[in-house]
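tool_call: predict_structure(chain=1)
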Amino acid sequence: MNAIVLLSGGLDSATALAMAAAEGRACHALSFDYGQRHAIELIAARRVAKALGAYSYRVVDLNLRGIGGSALTGNMPVPKGRTESEIAEGVPATYVPARNTLFLAYALALAEVTDTDEIVIGVNVLDSSGYPDCRPEFLAAMQKVAELGTAVGSLGRAPVIRAPLLSMTKAEIIRTGMALGVDYSLTHSCYDPAPSGAACRACDACLLRRRGFKAAGVPDPTWYI
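tool_result:
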């Protein structure tokens, strides 16, 4: 069975790839260069794909800077030092408009030409930092798109969109990945890294990552400022 795995280079998508590979799937890893300020994550994604034995790896150019509306694709500051309650409330400035909708649409297109049964996305509703496109309702809607808007869907063979991390805590994700041999030192999560590539340790992604490793009782291998 084939699977397309959306791979950002972060710890969630790396774990999702490891889980799909452990289930015996031939994994086609798919990343996006969408004009993100933390484009260093693409270097991490390539490392992760190689380390976890992805069947193929490709990067799609999708410049979202022309649309803007996000701290990740524009000049507005990345929020730093937010509390857990602040992270959990509202939609943050780091939300990229319709990003997962676009990513899944491209994955559906690739699924049609690679005869792929499944699309794996590492979204997580518990640690999603308020992103609306990480909710189960969104995934269910995109499954309908797969069934109604593709040629394979019209034949009753739409790929299944699967989010294996959806209801897991960050600590559970890390423990799962460790059990599957994921080397988290290869991954990158920071939204606002230094020019050297070191993580800022204060953005939402860094805070969630740091708390996750602490809760999991696992040393955090991240290179922080």
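agent: The radius of gyration is 17 Å. Proceeding to next step.
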